Amino acid sequence: MKATKMDRPNQGVKCIVTNCHYYMQGDHCSADKIEVQPKSASKSEETDCATFIPEARM
Predict the structure, then answer these.
(1) Which pTM value belongs to this model?
(2) How confident is the model at residue 57 (pLDDT cuts 50, 70, 90)?
(3) Where are the domains of the chain?
């Protein structure tokens, strides 16, 4: 699943990972969709955001 970066926040999705490509100021996510894995998770501690892409630093 490939997400597209929007020019506005994805309402209802909070993100505090400031080095993510989709991070927006104010702890918002600008990905048009997100994917949370793995399928076998039974607790929130066992999940991760598969949409995460490290922000390229200049």
Answers:
(1) 0.85
(2) low
(3) 1-58
